[in-house]
Amino acid sequence: MVFLFELSQQKSAHNMATDYCKYHPLVSATWHCPACHISVCDDCTHMTGEMENTPNCLLCNQPLTSISHSAAIAPFWQHYTDFMRLAFNPMGILCLLLMVVLPTLAPSGLLLPIAGGAYFVLSVYGWALLQHTATGNLKLPTLQNISQSISKLALEVSVIVALVFVLLGILALKSVVAATVISGLLLVLAPVMLMAVAIDKSMSSLWQHHAWLHIWGAMQLMYVPLAGIAVVLFAVIYAVTNLMADILPVGGLQGLKQGLYGYGLWVMMAVTGYALFQFQKPLHFEVLGKRNKKRVVNRKLDNQAARLEVYLKEGLYDRAAALMKVVAEKQKKNPEIQERYYQLLVFMQDKEQIPYQATSYLEALLETGQHSLALQVLIKLQFLIPDFRPQTPDMCFELAKACAEQKDYPRAVSLLRDMHKDSPHYANLPEAYLLLAKLLYDKMNEKHDALEILEYLVLRFKKHPRHPQIEHFWRQLGGKPKNDFMD
Ligand SMILES: [Zn+2]
Ligand SMILES: [Zn+2]
């Protein structure tokens, strides 16, 4: 069973492009938890630190891995036509033509410096292509793409490339065999050397074996077609130029060589750049550009709602309650949020927390004028916790008024009774007790209790603006002040 489960997970890992969030089946997943074997969307993650770019799993709190859509990247050998085509933007064509024509016009004494300069320029352009395809972009590069990639590193690489071409050219005049062997060796190593420089953004990586080994470890046998492309390409170019050597004049031959080798260099550099993109993960190559900016989770304010959903769906009610508590405390006047937390506590039968949250919920309802709803909540609540009473006298009074309106007199009385013991300094105590006395007298037929309460009011609130009214009512019920007896 476990095996089957893992197998299905592996299968889904291969179909990254069609992987959806476990909790939002219509949203494609952007993160994967290696511990829980689940894929989730941005909403269903948890940011811990401000600096950290990687969010954590909501369930196990371990860092998630980004589902980059690397599985959807077509391998470089499927794009060979693109790499052959990339050179042919107007700028590229112009550049190649210039390299072909220039030696035919120049005096033969200048051919060597021209060759050096040509390969330098060609390589600067080729490095730009490499940087361009390393972002996964296979569209023709724009002038901006090219100019942006010209850096100190680009110039350094180009000096080396130009030197290699010129020196190999000179060597070929002396020993074709030696030149061929060295060229072959350099071609096999060229992609790995270029990649090492591009990854570390440093010229010193050109000759660092551990950098080469790192790339070999990441690409393994996939490096063979990459080097193969370079070798075949240059072999064809060598054959063609060799064929033309007897026909063309010296200047023309060099023009042809510059054009063809330049083109070969560009194709090789473009493929190498794309290989960096394709193997970005194992290479730890940071892909620049818009398409693959480091993914940062949008820290939405309502992210808590999504997290809550995850907790509830997973049955992690304690965590849901903890989260809800924070949200409820922040939005005290929002009856819906107060209700959700309240309902969750009721569902969890958390009798310790329910009274507190019930008070907050009722408060929110009363403050938004939903008195009858508040009353319904109170009724259900008192069914669950019979001795429940709201914590503030104001709420008791408000609810008692609502009860009286709904003709629920016993409940109104129970809300108001003994209020002077719980909150002796409550400002509206006279009004509340006047209501209590009226309810006791008119509705509950407890005349003795009504009289007792009125007597308490009359004696305690002599300077209250409603004192005459209270006294009048008291006398109506048969209350007699002491000085009356004196008369
Ligand atoms: Zn989700
Ligand atoms: Zn997890």
Note the main attributes of this structure:
mainly alpha; two-stranded antiparallel sheet; binds zinc ion; 3-stranded antiparallel β-sheet; 487 residues; 2% strand; Serine Threonine Protein Phosphatase 5, Tetratricopeptide repeat; 23 helices; disordered N terminus
- Shape call: rod-shaped
Whole-number count of domains = 4
* H/E topology pattern: HEEEEEHHHHHHHHHHHHHHHHHHHHHH
Unreliable runs: 1-17, 290-301
Largest sheet: 3 strands, antiparallel
End-to-end separation: 97 Å
Rg, Cα atoms, Å: 42 Å
User: Which distinct ligands sit in these coordinates?
Assistant: zinc ion
Estimate the strand proportion. under 5%
Number of helices: 23
Structure description:
- With 487 residues, this protein is an all-alpha fold.
- The protein folds into four domains: 2-72, no CATH class; 76-292, no CATH class; 318-416, Serine Threonine Protein Phosphatase 5, Tetratricopeptide repeat; 425-482, no CATH class.
- The protein is built from 23 helices and five strands.
- It has helices spanning 2-14, 80-86, 90-105, 111-133, 143-148, 152-174, 176-200, 209-219, 223-244, 250-278, 280-283, 303-313, 317-330, 335-348, 354-367, 371-384, 393-405, 409-416, 419-422, 429-443, 447-460, 467-476, 482-486; strands at 31-33, 38-40, 45-46, 56-57, 65-66.
- The strands form two sheets. Strands 2-1-5 form a three-stranded antiparallel beta sheet, with no helix packed on it. A two-stranded antiparallel ribbon has the order 3-4.
- Strand 1 and strand 2 (38-40) form a beta hairpin.
- Helix 7 (176-200) runs parallel beside helix 10 (250-278), helix 14 packs antiparallel against helix 15 and helix 17 (393-405) runs antiparallel to helix 18.
- The radius of gyration is 42 Å and the shape is rod-shaped.
- The structure holds zinc ion (2 copies).
- One zinc ion binds at residues 21, 23-24, 27, 40-41, 43-44.
